[in-house]
Write a structure and sequence with these properties.
The complex is a heterodimer of chains A (737) and B (150).
Chain A: H1 3-12, H2 20-30, H3 48-51, H4 57-60, E1 62-64, E2 70-74, H5 83-95, E3 102-106, H6 111-114, H7 131-158, E4 165-168, E5 171-174, E6 179-182, H8 183-191, H9 220-223, E7 240-246, E8 253-258, H10 260-263, E9 268-274, E10 277-282, H11 285-294, E11 296-300, H12 309-319, E12 326-331, H13 334-340, E13 343-351, E14 363-369, E15 372-377, H14 382-393, E16 400-404, H15 421-431, E17 438-441, H16 444-448, E18 457-465, E19 471-481, H17 490-493, E20 494-495, E21 498-499, H18 500-503, E22 516-523, H19 537-554, H20 559-566, H21 571-584, E23 594-603, E24 606-616, E25 622-632, H22 639-658, E26 664-665, E27 668-669, E28 687-692, H23 710-722, H24 731-734
Parallel strand pairs in A: 2-3, 7-17, 15-16, 19-22, 25-28
Antiparallel strand pairs in A: 1-2, 4-5, 5-6, 7-10, 8-11, 9-10, 12-22, 13-18, 14-15, 14-17, 18-19, 20-21, 23-24, 24-25, 26-27
Chain B: E1 2-5, E2 8-11, H1 20-27, E3 46-49, E4 52-55, E5 68-70, H2 78-89, H3 99-112, H4 118-125, H5 135-149
Parallel strand pairs in B: 1-5
Antiparallel strand pairs in B: 1-2, 3-4, 3-5
Helix pairs in contact in B: 2-3, 2-5
Classes of the chains: A alpha+beta (737), B alpha+beta (150).
The structure holds FE2/S2 (inorganic) cluster (2 copies).
Chain lengths: 737, 150
C-alpha cells in the first residue's frame, strides 16, 4: 500500500519525507476543521524516532502478567495476514517465552512505541506489507530487553550472578542452586529493573521459532470455533445498531428525506443525519436494516459522478492517445530509440475498478463514558482515526481510546485517510447525544457500493525492437485516478504531479530498458479510489509481464531466458525466478492440452516468480490447474504463513482477473452483492505450491507481493495456448469481445 | 417463540420475519455465526437446521418451530472435533471470518460422505466464500479430518 512509497522516499533521503507534521496538518485542513486542532494526536508532533530510545518495551511492547501470560502489544493490526503471529514470534524468540503463554493485543496511542519504522516512524499504521519489516528490530529487541530484565530480577532475588541464569520456555533457572521461577513470578520485580541500553540478539543459527515451519499460528483454534472476536461481534449493554443510508451516486448529497416508514419499523429507535447521508438506529441489525430500506430520500447530484464505467474508461482510452500530463520516469531517449526500431509492438490495456469485498462489511463501535470515548474497529492507522474522530466530536484526542480489532479481511480497505467508517460512527453517536453505545454496521450493499476501489486504469505501450530482436525504446502511458492527490498523504508522496502508487512497478521497473519513458495522466472523478492489495502493481505488473512475454514470443526467445537477460544485476529477483522455474519444471514437456505461462514481479521489497499451468477446454475456456511460486522475502519469519499468504494471493488475484470489476450505470454501482460481484470460489482454486528462497536478511513484505504476478502468469499461459493476448480485463469481458 | 438451539430451548422475543442470523447474533448473543452478504451467497452464516447446512441469513425465525438448530458454538460430535482439529493443525484460517461457515459446511459434508474427493469437496463447499482464498487448506483440512475419522 502507500507505505512502499515511504520506503522509496527514504532511499532518496530521509529529509524528503520528514514533513510528517505537515502531512498531519494537511490532513486537518483537508478535513475542513482548520489548523487549531492540529493533529494533537498523542505523540504525533514529529518527535517519534528520537524518542524511540525512551520507550520501555517492558510495558509498551510486552506485558508480563503475574498469571504468567506474556501479552505482546502489536503496533500492527491483523486483517488475516498473520501480523500478530509474526510479531509474537519475534518476541518469543528473544524472550524465550513458551508459545502457550503468548497473547497478542492491538496497541495504539504511543507513536514512539508504535510508529511504523518502515515509514520512518512518523505514523502508526499497517500497510504496504511493512509489518514485519517495521517490527524486525523493534520486537526482537523488546523481547531481549524484557528477558534481560527478568534475568536481572531473578539474579537479585536469588543473590546469584545473572550470567548463571538460564531461560527456557517462560521459566528462569539457576543451575548451581537449583532455583527456578516462572516469568509470572518474577514479573513485578522485573518491571522495576533498569532498562538495559544494549542487548544482543540471537544469531540466525540460534533461532528455534523464527523460520521454523512447525512453529504455528496462535489464533487458529479461536478461528475454528467461532470464538475469535471481530468488530461485528462487539456487544455492549444498551448498544444500538446503526445501518447507514448513503447517496446512490458518488458525490451525491442529501437534499431531503422522509423517515416515517423507517421509524414505524419495530425496533427502530432513531434516524439521524450524518455528513454522508443518514443512519437508522435500532435495537438489532435486522430492524436497522429494514428501517434503512424504508427511508425515502432525495439526493442532490450536482457534481456527482453520473457516468457509466464504460464511459469513464472510454475517456481514459482517448486520453492515452496523447502525451501524458506528467513524466513519471525517463531514461535515455525512448522516442529516438523507437524511431530506429525495425518493429514496433503496440498495445492498449484496460483495467476496471475493483472492490476489496472483504467478508466482514465495514463497521465501528463508539461508546462514551464520562469524558472518555472508546472506538472499536479495524484501525489500520489508529492515531489518525482517533484525531479525526476527535475533530468530528469536538473533543481532545487525548480522551479517545482506540480498540484495535482483528478484521474479517481488509486488503487495504481499512487504511483510509479520512477515518471513513470511524468518523461516521462517531457522528452517529454524537447525533444521539451518546445516550447509548452505537455499532455502525454497513450492509454488504453499502460496502460494495461504497467506493474506495482499486482505480480503473488504461495503459498504452509502444515498444520498439531492433533487427537483432533487442528492445529499442519503451514508451508507456498510463491514465488512472490518483489515490493520494487530495489526501493528507499527498504532500510527502506525490511529486510533480506523479502519484507513485499509479506508476509503481512500471516507472521503477527492474528490467534493463535504457530508453524508457513512463507518462501518467491523473484522471478525475468523484468515485473514491484506494489501495487494493498490491496497489499500482495490480495493473502495472500485468502490463509489464505480459509485454515481456509478448516480446519473447515476437523474438522467439524463451520468456524465462529473456527475463534473465534483462535482469542481470538483480540477484534476489533472479533467485525467485529461478526457484519458480525449477520447481515448476519450466521447459519440460507437458501433457496434451496443458500450457504454461511465466511472470515475475517485485513489490514491497519482495520478489515473486510464478509459473501458471492451465488446461484448455472448448473454445477459450480454460482452467488454472497449478501455480508454482518462488518467493524472495528475506527472512521468512513464519514460513508457513508466507506460504498461506501467497496461496491466498493467488486466489485473490485469480478471481480478480477472471471476473471482478465494479460496473457503474448512470453513476450507480450495478453489482452490490456477491451474486453480481463474484470473487473466486473453491471450485476454481488451483493447486498452489510456494517455495521460499532461503535467506537470513531482514524480512520484506508478504501480504501483497503474491498478487501482481498471478494475472500475467495466467494470461501468458493462455497466450501460449491460443495466441490470444487478453488486454481488456477482467477476462470474462476480454475474452468475449 | 421458543427455539431449540444447540440442544437448549431458548425463549426468543423477535419479529417472526427476523432472519435466524440476527436472532442468534443480536438477540441471543451467539456471535460465532457471521454476516457476510445477507442473501445466501457467501455461506458465512451457515448453521445446521435438523442437521442440514442452511443459510441463517435467509431463514426467518418464524419458520423454525420444532427445528433443531446447531451453530458453531454447539457442534461437538466426533466429526466436528476432527474438522476443528484439522483446521487448527493446518492453520486453515487467515482472517477467520468465513471459517465458522466453512466448518459447518465441512462437517455436514463429512457426515454424508466419509471420504470425499476434491470434486466432492468443491461441490459441497462452493457456497462458502473465502475472500482470503484459503481454499487449498480447506480441501486439505477436509481430507485430514476424513483421514483422522477413518
Ligand atoms: S450472510 Fe448468509 S450466506 Fe452470506
Ligand atoms: S479466512 Fe478470511 S474470509 Fe476466509
Amino acid at each position: 500500500m502507500f507505505a512502499n512509497r515511504f520506503l522509496a522516499q527514504r532511499q532518496l533521503g530521509t529529509k524528503r519525507f520528514r514533513p510528517s507534521r505537515r502531512m498531519f496538518l494537511a490532513g486537518t485542513a483537508a478535513a475542513g476543521a482548520g489548523l487549531t486542532i492540529g493533529f494533537a494526536v498523542p505523540g504525533a508532533n514529529a518527535q517519534a524516532p528520537a524518542a524511540a530510545a525512551a520507550v520501555n518495551p517492558f510495558g509498551a511492547h510486552i506485558r508480563i502478567g503475574t498469571d504468567n501470560t506474556v501479552t505482546v502489544l502489536s503496533a500492527h493490526m491483523d486483517m488475516g495476514q498473520g501480523a500478530y503471529f509474526g510479531i509474537a514470534t519475534l518476541v518469543a524468540e528473544e524472550l524465550d517465552a513458551a508459545r502457550s503463554q503468548l497473547r497478542v493485543e492491538g496497541a495504539s496511542g504511543n507513536l514512539a512505541a508504535y510508529g511504523n519504522v518502515a515509514w520512518g516512524g512518523f505514523a502508526q499504521g499497517t500497510g504496504g506489507s511493512t509489518a514485519m519489516a517495521s517490527s524486525w528490530e523493534r520486537y526482537r529487541r523488546a523481547g531481549a530487553i524484557c528477558r534481560a530484565m527478568l534475568v536481572s530480577a531473578a539474579a537479585r532475588a536469588w543473590n546469584v550472578p545473572a550470567n548463571e541464569i538460564a531461560v527456557k520456555d517462560g521459566t528462569l533457572f539457576h543451575g548451581p542452586s537449583g532455583r527456578g521461577a516462572t516469568f509470572g513470578a518474577m514479573a513485578d520485580a522485573a518491571a522495576a529493573e533498569p532498562v538495559p541500553q544494549t542487548v544482543s540478539l540471537k544469531a540466525p543459527g540460534q533461532w528455534t521459532r523464527i523460520g521454523n515451519p512447525a512453529y504455528r499460528r496462535l489464533d487458529s483454534a479461536d478461528k475454528s470455533t467461532g470464538k475469535q472476536q471481530f468488530t461485528i461481534d462487539v456487544r455492549l449493554p444498551g448498544m444500538l445498531i446503526a445501518v447507514p443510508v448513503h447517496a446512490p451516486v458518488f458525490g451525491g448529497k442529501l437534499k431531503s428525506f422522509d423517515a416515517a416508514a423507517a421509524k414505524a419499523v419495530a425496533g427502530v429507535v432513531d434516524v439521524v443525519t450524518t455528513s454522508r447521508g443518514l443512519a437508522v438506529l435500532a435495537t438489532n441489525t435486522w430492524a436497522a436494516r429494514t428501517g434503512a430500506e424504508a427511508i425515502k430520500a432525495e439526493w442532490d447530484q450536482t457534481g456527482a459522478e453520473t457516468r457509466s464505467s464504460d464511459a469513464i474508461l472510454a475517456s481514459y482510452r482517448a486520453r492515452v492517445d496523447a502525451a501524458g500530463e506528467h513524466v513519471a520516469a525517463s531514461r535515455g531517449n525512448a522516442d529516438a530509440a523507437l524511431g530506429r526500431a525495425t518493429r514496433t509492438l503496440e498495445a492498449t490495456y484496460e483495467f476496471p475498478y475493483l472492490a476489496h469485498a472483504a467478508l466482514e462489511p465495514l463497521n465501528a463501535v463508539v461508546r462514551r463514558q464520562g469524558d472518555i470515548v472508546e472506538i472499536w474497529g479495524g484501525h489500520q492507522i489508529p492515531d489518525l482515526y482517533a484525531g479525526l474522530a476527535a475533530q468530528a466530536l469536538g473533543m481532545s484526542p487525548a480522551n479517545i481510546r482506540m480498540h484495535v480489532m482483528k478484521t474479517g479481511g481488509g486488503f487495504g480497505r481499512r487504511a483510509v485517510t479520512d477515518g471513513d467508517v470511524v468518523v461516521e460512527a462517531a457522528e452517529i453517536a454524537k447525533a444521539i447525544g451518546f445516550r447509548a453505545p452505537v455499532k455502525l454496521q454497513w450492509t454488504r450493499e453499502t460496502d460494495m457500493a461504497g467506493g474506495r476501489y482499486r482505480p480503473a486504469a488504461v495503459h498504452k505501450l509502444r515498444v520498439g525492437l531492433d533487427a537483432a530482436g533487442n528492445i529499442a525504446g519503451w514508451q508507456h502511458r498510463i491514465a488512472a485516478q490518483s489515490i493520494l492527490i487530495g489526501t493528507p498523504f499527498e504532500g510527502g508522496l506525490v511529486k510533480n504531479g506523479v502519484d507513485a502508487t499509479s506508476v509503481e512497478g512500471a516507472a521503477d521497473t527492474l528490467y534493463a530498458l535504457p530508453d524508457l519513458r513512463v507518462e501518467i495522466t491523473n484522471m478525475v472523478s468523484p468515485v473514491p479510489v484506494l489501495w487494493w492489495r498490491s496497489v499500482g502493481h495490480t495493473h502495472t505488473a500485468y502490463v509489464m509481464e505480459t509485454m515481456i512475454d509478448e516480446i519473447a514470443a515476437a523474438t522467439a526467445k524463451d520468456p524465462v531466458a529473456l527475463r534473465r537477460q534483462l535482469l542481470a544485476g538483480h540477484p534476489r529477483h533472479l533467485a525467485a525466478i529461478d526457484l519458480a522455474a525449477a520447481r515448476a519444471g519450466w521447459g519440460t514437456p507437458l501433457p496434451a492440452g496443458r500450457f504454461r505461462g511465466f511472470a515475475a514481479h517485485e513489490s514491497f521489497g519482495t520478489s515473486v516468480g510464478m509459473v501458471a499451468e492451465i488446461s484448455m477446454g472448448a473454445g477459450n475456456a480454460f482452467k488454472v490447474e497449478r501455480i508454482v511460486a518462488g518467493v524472495a522475502c528475506g527472512t521468512a519469519i513464519n514460513p508457513d504463513n508466507v506460504r498461506a499468504q501467497v496461496e491466498g494471493a493467488v486466489g485473490f488475484g485469480l478471481g480478480a482477473i477472471l471476473r471482478e470489476g465494479v460496473t457503474l450505470d448512470g453513476g450507480r454501482v450495478v453489482d452490490t452483492n456477491y451474486d453480481g460481484y463474484r470473487p473466486l470460489r473453491i471450485d476454481e482454486m488451483p493447486k498452489v505450491e510456494v517455495h521460499i528462497v532461503a535467506s537470513t536478511a531482514a524480512p520484506t513484505g508478504i501480504g501483497e507481493p503474491g498478487v501482481p504476478p498471478v494475472g500475467p502468469a495466467i494470461a501468458n499461459a493462455l497466450a501460449a495456448a491460443t495466441g490470444k493476448r487478453v488486454r481488456l480485463l477482467p477476462f470474462e469481458k476480454g475474452l468475449s469481445t | 417463540m421458543k427455539l431449540n438451539i444447540n440442544g437448549r430451548e431458548r425463549n426468543l422475543e423477535a419479529d417472526p420475519e427476523m432472519p435466524l442470523l440476527w436472532a442468534l447474533r443480536d438477540v441471543l448473543g451467539l456471535t460465532g455465526t457471521k454476516f457476510g452478504c445477507g442473501i445466501a451467497q457467501c455461506g458465512a452464516c451457515t448453521v445446521h437446521i435438523d442437521g442440514v447446512p442452511s443459510r441463517a441469513c435467509q431463514t426467518p425465525v418464524g419458520t423454525l418451530d420444532g427445528a433443531k438448530i446447531t451453530t458453531i458454538e454447539g457442534i461437538e460430535d466426533r466429526v466436528a472435533k476432527a474438522v476443528q482439529a484439522a483446521w487448527t493443525k493446518l492453520d486453515v484460517p487467515q482472517c477467520g471470518y468465513c471459517q465458522s461457515g466453512q466448518i459447518m459446511s465441512a462437517v455436514a459434508l463429512l457426515r454424508d460422505n466419509a471420504k470425499p474427493t476434491d470434486a466432492d469437496i468443491d461441490a459441497a463447499m462452493a457456497g462458502n466464500l473465502c475472500r482470503c482464498a484459503t481454499y487449498q487448506r480447506i480441501r486439505a483440512g477436509i481430507h485430514e479430518a476424513a483421514k483422522s475419522l477413518a
